[in-house]
Design brief:
This protein has 84 residues and is an alpha+beta fold. Helix content is 24%, strand content 37%. It has 2 helices and 6 strands; from the N terminus they run βαββαβββ. Strands 2-3-1-6 form a 4-stranded antiparallel sheet, covered by helices on one side. A hairpin with a 6-residue loop joins strand 2 (29-36) and strand 3 (43-51). It is globular, with a radius of gyration of 12 Å. The two termini are 22 Å apart. The model has no long low-confidence stretch (mean pLDDT 96).
Length: 84
């Protein structure tokens, strides 16, 4: 079962592929997306990573939460379910 991870406080220059590379060290990344502003197309400073298993996601969260990347301290945790 896959797990969705929230990644906050990203550098505004971080790309989808850089985000995927960062998490790939901890397991199989099925999707990595930096959220962008709808009007300007610029990064909003956060994103989501989907990993193929909960165990891999837990490993990535413990390793990357609080880690300094591009001069910014990342906030990494399980994404909350989207309410509609």
């Amino acid at each position: 079962m896959s797990a969705n991870i929230y990644v906050g406080n990203l550098s505004f220059q971080t790309s989808n592929s850089q985000l995927e590379t960062l998490f790939a060290e901890y397991g199989e990344v099925t999707r990595a997306q930096v959220v962008t502003d709808r009007d300007t197309g610029r990064s909003r400073g956060f994103g989501f990573v989907e990993m193929s298993s909960k165990e891999q996601a837990d490993s990535a969260i413990s390793a990357l939460n609080g880690r300094d990347v591009d001069g910014r301290q990342l906030t990494v945790n399980l994404a909350k379910a989207k309410s509609r």
